[in-house]
Amino acid sequence: MFALIRKDLQIEFRTKETVAALLLLGLLTLTVLSFAFDPTSALRAEAAPGALWVAVIFAGVLGLSRSFVAERENDCLHGLLLSPVDRGTIYLAKAVANVLFMLMAQVVIVPIFLFFFNVPVGVHLFGVMLALALGLVGFSAVGTLFAAISVRTRVREVMLPLLMLPMTVPIFIAGVKVTGRLLAGKSWAEVTPWLHLMVGFDVVFLVVGWLVFEYAVEE
Amino acid sequence: MRKAADLILPAATGVVMLLALYMVFVAVPTDSTMGIVQRIFYFHVPLAIMSFLAFGTVAVASVLFLWRGGRAWDRLAHVAAEVGLVFCSLVLITGPIWAKPIWGTWWTWDARLTTTLILWLIYAGYLMLRTVVGPTEQGARYAAVVGIVGAIDIPIIHRSVYWWRTIHPAVLVTREGGSGLTDPTMRATLAVCFLAFLLLFVWLVWVREQSLRLADTLERLRLEALGQS
Known about the structure:
The complex is a heterodimer of chains A (219) and B (229). Chain A is mostly helical and 219 residues long.
């Protein structure tokens, strides 16, 4: 499994195309969303958590849809499937690699978000990053599974968000809530139910993906 | 048996549906507080329950398809999703018609409304995937995976939007116990409507399943004919 993750990371470090694309798309989304809210209004602070998560989602969908394209173009997926590893392991490796890519992009997107939306950097930054990490695991758990499916269809760029976005609504709601409350200076106790929900979502869909991935990749 | 069902299902659906219409528009007393618009409730609730039944069928048929195989399970999942989406659309249309005079707004981001909308989106995506992959073995497996993931997701989505906000009336089960429908005619009407829409659901699934099976047969015959020539 670690060999598989290392393979994906190595390809990425040599080309740097996925993380760079994720980063730029996240940045663009934040910029465009900045125009949607008057810079002086109080609405802006209210909308800030939503803007961050929309940027994260857009970048995430893009990254996930890329994750099987390279495998398909060079017919590497056949090689992977022929290798003596369980299908579930391939799924987990792919999911972990996708989380890592998205996290790398977050390292830049979050500071820029704080910068653009003029959000006070407080002690809660850790909580926001935790929520982001949990959210990305959830996106990746569902998205990796659906990316393997949509890459085989004619309209793969459209298919993945169509399938993935409705399914990941809980992550989005929980993420926005946690971020909003932490940035508003609310206590840790107010966000723990949401964090539990995200952990639950992550665990459930990692297990489901691990179980059904073989049906999504077999020819 | 097949012939009999072809005859009995539409006949029974027609009779019970006419009875349901009579009860909803003539027999049942008008609600004292909400007025005439409350009558849409007799369509709205059975449709909602039937669409949940349909999406449940999709999940069960998908699991059975992956587990046991067999084109029949795949067809059932496909057909149930189609009928379920039609019913779910009707729920989303009848709901706002009631909500406008009662809540004063067409739409609100209440837990049940939001969950239903997301359900609609999930199964619209499911059918979109079906259309794109076509009636292949591979496409059937993809659809089954999406059907299962969607079904597992529904309780989580519901929990999350419930925490988010809720104002939808719970007419059938209230916290005090007992139902919000006091008049026995109202309960009878609701029961007849449930039966009518259940029959409609079964009949639509039946008809649609037959048309898909015919399409399968046609495809097989076409391939055979091509092989011979």
